[in-house]
Amino acid sequence: MTRTLPRTLPRTLIDSLVAEKKIVVCVGPGGVGKTTTAAAFAALAARAGRKTLVSTIDPAPRLADALGVSLSADPTPVPAEVSQALGIAPGLLHVARLDTARAFATLVEEQVADPRMRRRIFDNPIYRQITTTLTGSQEYAATLALYDIVRRGDFDLVVLDTPPTAHALDFLEAPRRIEDAISSPAIKWFVKPVGGGRFSLQRVRAGGAVILGRLAKFVGSRLLEDIAAFLTDFQFVLGGFLERAQSIGQLLRQPQVAFLLVLGPEVAAVDEAIYFAGRLNAAGVPLAAFVVNRVHSPPGAIDADEIASRLRACPETAGIAAADIDLAAERLARTAVDFRQLTDGERRELARLAEAAAGIPVWEVPQLGYDIGSLAALRTVGDHLGTPRP
Ligand SMILES: Nc1ncnc2c1ncn2[C@@H]1O[C@H](COP(=O)(O)OP(=O)(O)OP(=O)(O)O)[C@@H](O)[C@H]1O
Ligand SMILES: [Mg+2]
C-alpha cells in the first residue's frame, strides 16, 4: 500500500515522516497555524506520492476556498486544478472536515440498533451538552473521526488537524478524560442496576431522594429527568464509549503515529512546548518535531546611515531631498532596532527550544506578509517544512 518515494527528495522532515508514519497529528494552542501546517504537510505528502487525507477543523474560509472542496465530513479529493497547482498527482490529496456531532452519532449508531432509542439519545439535551459544549468533546470527536478513518484503511497517511486547545496536552488526554468521566463513581451510581433490573428513574427518586430533592431545587427537576432518561438509554453505549476511548488511547501510541507541535516563537509558547515534550515522552508518545510558525526575519539593516544609503539606491527615491531621506532613515532605524530586538528574542527562544528538547527537530516557518488563503501560500509553507535544515 505504501508507495515508494521519489529518490530525488532530500532527507527532510517530510521525507522521514512521509516514509515512516501513517498518522500525523498537528497539535498546539489556538491560532498558531495547526490547520495551515496540517494542510501544507498533507499536500507535501501527497506530492511525494502518498494517498493522503487531511482532516481539518474549521479551516479559515479562504483556505477552504483555495482547496476548492466543500469540506464535508466525508473525505473528498481536491479538484484536479488544485492538485495540479500543488504539484500533486490527481486523486492523492483528500480533505475532510471534522463534524463533531456526526463523530459521536456514528459511535452511538454502532452501539444501539433500536432506532427509537437512538432518537431518544440524540434528542436528549444532556447528550447534546456532552457532545457539544463539554470540555474536551471536540478533541474526543477528532479522535473518534480519526479512528474511523484509520479503520477504513483508505489512506496511506492521515494528517489530523486538532481543535484549538488551551493546552496542547488536552488533545492527547481527551480519550482518557472521557474514560474517567464515564467510569466516575457518580455515573456508575446512576447506572448501577437496581435489584437485578436495569437502571430506572426510581433509583434517582428513591436512592438519593433527599440530596436529589435539594439538587432539583437548584437545577430543576426537568434537568434531573433529562439526566435520568439519558443515562437509562446511555448505559447501552457506555461500554462502547469506554472501549473506543481505550482503543484510541492505544492507537495514538503506535510507532506509526507522529505528533507535530505547532507553536509561535514566544517565551510562553516555548515553555509550554518544552513541558509538552516532556509529558509526551513520559506518556510514551513520540513527538516528531516542533513546527515554529510565523518566525520573523531580522531587518536587513538597523544603522541609519546604511538605511539612508540603501534608500538612495532605490529608483523610487529619485527626486526626494537628501534631508528627507535622512529623516526617514533615522525613523526607520528606530523601528528596525525594535524589530531586531523582537527577532533576536525569537532566535533565543528557538535556541532554547532546540537545547531543552534535544533530539527533536525544530522546523521554522516564516511569518508570511500575506494571509494564507491561497495555494501559493500553502506551497510556500510546505516548502519550508520540506527544506532540509542547516
Ligand atoms: N506563517 C504564516 N504567515 C502568515 N499567516 C499565517 C501563517 N500561518 C498561519 N497564518 C494565518 O494565521 C491564521 C491562523 O492560522 P490557522 O487557522 O492555521 O491556525 P490554527 O492553529 O488552526 O487556529 P485555530 O486554533 O483557531 O484552529 C490564518 O488566518 C492563517 O492564514
Ligand atoms: Mg485550526
Q: In what order do the strands lie side by side in the largest sheet? A: 3-4-2-5-1-6-7-8
Residue windows where pLDDT falls under 50 for at least 5 positions:
1-10, 194-202
Count of distinct strands: 8
Oligomer: single chain
C-alpha Rg, in Å?
26 Å
Distance between the termini: 33 Å
Give the overall shape, derived from the CA principal axes. Answer: elongated
**Strand composition percent:** 5-15%
- What is the makeup of the main sheet? 8 strands, mixed
Fourth-level CATH superfamily of the domain at 13-175 and 255-296 and 367-385: P-loop containing nucleotide triphosphate hydrolases
CATH architecture verdict of the domain at 13-175 and 255-296 and 367-385: 3-Layer(aba) Sandwich
Query: What is the CATH domain class of the domain at 13-175 and 255-296 and 367-385?
Result: Alpha Beta
Bound molecules: adenosine-5'-triphosphate, magnesium ion
- Whole-number average pLDDT? 81
Order of helices and strands: HEHEHEHEHHHHEHHHHHEHEHHEH
Give a written overview of the molecule.
- By secondary structure, the chain is an alpha/beta fold.
- It has 17 helices and 8 strands.
- Helix 5 crosses helix 13.
- Strands 3-4-2-5-1-6-7-8 form an 8-stranded mixed sheet, with helices on both faces.
- It has helices at residues 13-20, 34-47, 61-67, 80-85, 100-111, 115-123, 125-132, 137-152, 169-182, 185-191, 201-207, 209-219, 221-251, 267-282, 304-313, 322-356, 375-385; strands spanning 23-27, 52-56, 76-77, 93-97, 157-161, 257-263, 287-295, 362-366.
- Among the domains are: 13-175 and 255-296 and 367-385, P-loop containing nucleotide triphosphate hydrolases (Rossmann fold); 304-347.
- It binds adenosine-5'-triphosphate and magnesium ion (MG).
- The site of magnesium ion has 5 residues, from helix 2.
- Adenosine-5'-triphosphate binds next to helix 2 and strand 7.
